[in-house]
Specification:
By secondary structure, this protein is of the alpha+beta class. It has two domains: 77 residues, Ubiquitin-like (UB roll), CATH 3.10.20.30; 67 residues, DNA polymerase, domain 1 (Orthogonal Bundle). A five-stranded mixed β-sheet has the order 2-1-5-3-4, sandwiched between helices. Helix 3 packs across helix 6. The longest helix is centred in the C-terminal third of the chain and has 13 residues. The termini are far apart.
Length: 154
């Protein structure tokens, strides 16, 4: 068994795995009890498993646990600053952008990681292009786009 040390939501952790190719998703959920990261398709196509690795959005279902070694991983649980929600989380609440909630953490992580960290005032088209790889079965895309626009103004 190998051990992989990395930073998880700001703290040093070590994950044990017999298989270096084990998906990071399973480690986050099973070893650390983080339920915000969701299993959706298992193919990296739906975005429900999105986390930040060194500030970039990655699909944890397609990211091997050995790739996390020495890196900084942030999940939806680590996005808030103590009791204060991240501005994207606050905007999702204000716009009622979650219906069933299954895609929400992936949408927030994609927005916080790859869009708002790089673009301060994205257009609606830019928001839609960024979120195109995240699937929402409930059809709340309009609210999600409004929430991201709101967060960019915050």
């Amino acid at each position: 068994m190998a051990s992989y040390a990395f930073r998880l939501n700001g703290r040093g952790v070590s994950a044990d795995s017999w298989d270096p190719a084990q998906p990071l998703l399973y480690v986050l959920r099973n070893q650390f009890g983080l339920r915000g990261v969701k299993f959706g398709c298992g193919l990296g196509q739906c975005g429900a498993c999105t986390v930040m690795m060194d500030g970039r959005a990655v699909r944890s279902c397609q990211t091997r646990v050995d790739r996390a070694a020495g890196r900084s991983i942030t999940t939806i649980e680590g996005l808030a600053d103590g009791p204060a929600l991240h501005r994207v989380q606050t905007a999702f609440v204000a716009e009622q952008a979650a219906q069933c909630g299954y895609c929400t953490s992936g949408m927030i992580m994609t927005t916080a990681a790859s869009l708002l960290s790089q673009t301060s005032m994205p257009t609606d088209d830019h928001i839609k292009r960024t979120l195109a790889g995240n699937l929402c079965r409930c059809g709340t895309h309009t609210r999600i786009v409004r929430a991201v626009a709101r967060a960019s103004r915050a």
